[in-house]
Amino acid sequence: MPERPSLRAPSIAFVVVLAIVVAACGGAVATPIPTARPTAAPTPNFHLGDDATTDEVFSGLGRAGLRMVPNSASTFDNDGTPVVAQIYATYLDWPLHVYEFRTVADLESATAKWKDEEVPGTGDPAISLVGQNILVTWGPKTPGGVPKAPDSRKNEALRDLVAALETLVGPLRSHSNVPIELASAPAASTAASPSAKPKATPAP
Question: What is the value of pTM for the model shown?
Fold first, then answer.
């Protein structure tokens, strides 16, 4: 009769190798995949340079929440004029004008008459704010008379106007018949003291 194949016991070496493989597979610990931490979005910088335009400033004021009514706008192509463009608007029933000067030096020359503790005089608006190459005036001009000071409602609106302009074209200089607190006032800044008397000056 043919011999049946004998069932041989697995070798000791094979058993040891199999045990090692099983142990390695069963006891493996998955390495956690590191998760990237979310990075904070950069804060938008709305500050304009010394070549800011009236459109940029007016848009920035609106973005800051100031409710202004635009009336008209003008541009000047003559290189000899210091003012490049201007926007006429209304803010809380007072005229608000945004002037774009050709250079910062042109604007400094136009406001050279501003002196420390001097308040607006005859024909001047109640509020004037300067930053970079931009001049913003707020308040009616009264020929032959000194400007009327803003009431409490307009004083609150003035704080919003100053804060928005400091973001856009700060630091600011001011010329007004009410004290204006500026975040970082340059040395040439002028803010009227409550006891200062208006001084008649020719209109710009």
Answer: 0.70
